[in-house]
Amino acid sequence: QKDVLRVENLKTYFYMKNKKVAKAVDDVSFSIKRGETVALVGESGSGKSMTALSIMQLIKKPGKIAGGDIFLENQSLTGFSKKKFERIRGNEIGMIFQEPMTALNPVFTVGNQIIEMIVKHKKVSKKEARNKAIELLEVVGISRPEQIINNYPHQLSGGMRQRVMIAMAISCEPKLLIADEPTTALDVTIQLQIMNLLFKLQKKFNMAILLITHDLGVVAEYADRVMVMYGGQIVEQSDTKKVLFDTKHPYTEGLLNSLPDMDHPTLRLKAIKGTTPPASAFPTGCRFAPRCPYVMEECISQNPPLFDTGNHHLSRCILHKEGVETDNNGTGNQS
Ligand code: SF4
Ligand code: MG
C-alpha cells in the first residue's frame, strides 16, 4: 500500500505577545498508508490536536506552520492557497471531532449541511445530493433518514450527531480520515458502536485513519501503529503490540501504569505525577525529565533524538541510546 499522508519535520509554532514561542508541534514526522489506522496518543496539551489541525490547515493566528512539509500522496500541501486547500478539506481528507455540536451548524438542518458538503465538492444537482445524503445517513446506521434529514443538530442525541458528522466526513469518500477523540463525549456503549462503524467504513473505502485518542483500550483494539506524543514531539512509535507490550519510553510506561488495575478495580488511577509542560516553556533537556522516574544527569542537558531500538521501534530516551539515532524522522528512516 502507498503512503496516503506523509508528515515531515512539521513545526507548528505560536508566536505570543510576550515574544515567547510556543512549540505546539515540534519536528514531528510520520506517514500513514491506505487502509491503515495510526493512533496518536498522549495527554491533553501534548500536541495531538495541533498536529491534526496543521494537516487540515486550520491553525489560527498567532499560530502557524513554521517548518516542515505535509504530503497527500506525494503532493505537498503546505504551499497550497486557502482556496486550493478548500478542495482538499472534506473531499480528500475528512475530519471528525470530539464534540459534533461545535462542528455542526445549529441553524441548519443536518440534511442541509450534508447536502452543502456534497454540492461543494461534487458536480451534482441538489436533488441528487439530497438522495446521496439520505443514502449516507443509512450507511452510518441512522434509521428513518428521510425524517432525520429535516432535523436540527440539537434535536439529535450525541451519538446520532456523531453519526451525522461521520456521514459528512465520508460523503466524498476521503483517502484519509482524521478522527480527533471521536467518542470521548459519548457513553461507553455508543462509543463502541461509533468505533465499529468507523472501522466498517474504513474497510469499505480503504481509508487511512489518523486516530487521536487518549484511550489505550481503543488503541489496542483498532490501531495498527501507535505514536505517543509528549511536549509537541513523538516520544515512542511502533506497531501497536510493541508499544503496548514491549514498551520503551518512560512516558508510555507511565501512561500504561495509569490505566485502571483490573485486579483491583476499586483502586484509584495512578496518574503520572506532574503535568505536561506548557509549549512555551519546555525544559532544555528531555521534555519528560521533570516527571521521569529514571531521570539522570545527562537527561537535563540535551533533548534526546528518536533512537531506533530495532525494527522501527522508536524511542526518544537516553536509555535507548545504544539504538540507531534517527534524523527525528518518525517514518523510521535513518539519516
Ligand atoms: Fe527519562 Fe532521561 Fe529518558 Fe527523558 S531521556 S525519558 S528523563 S530517562
Ligand atoms: Mg485534543
From TrEMBL:
Q: Which of UniProt's keywords are assigned here?
A: ATP-binding, Cell membrane, Membrane, Nucleotide-binding, Transport
> From what superkingdom does this record's organism come?
Bacteria
Q: Which InterPro entries match?
A: AAA+_ATPase, ABC_Ni/Peptide_Import, ABC_transporter-like_ATP-bd, ABC_transporter-like_CS, Oligopep_ABC_C, P-loop_NTPase
What is the membrane topology here?
Peripheral membrane protein
- Annotated Pfam families: ABC_tran, oligo_HPY
Q: What is this protein called?
A: ABC transporter ATP-binding protein
PANTHER family per UniProt: DIPEPTIDE TRANSPORT ATP-BINDING PROTEIN DPPD, OLIGOPEPTIDE TRANSPORT ATP-BINDING PROTEIN APPD
Q: Which family does it belong to?
A: Belongs to the ABC transporter superfamily.
- To which species is this protein native? Virgibacillus halodenitrificans (Bacillus halodenitrificans)
Its localization reads: Cell membrane
**Primary location recorded for the protein, binned into one broad class:** membrane
> Which PROSITE patterns does the entry link to?
ABC_TRANSPORTER_1, ABC_TRANSPORTER_2
- Which Gene Ontology molecular-function terms are recorded? ATP binding
The ABC transporter domain extends over 5-256
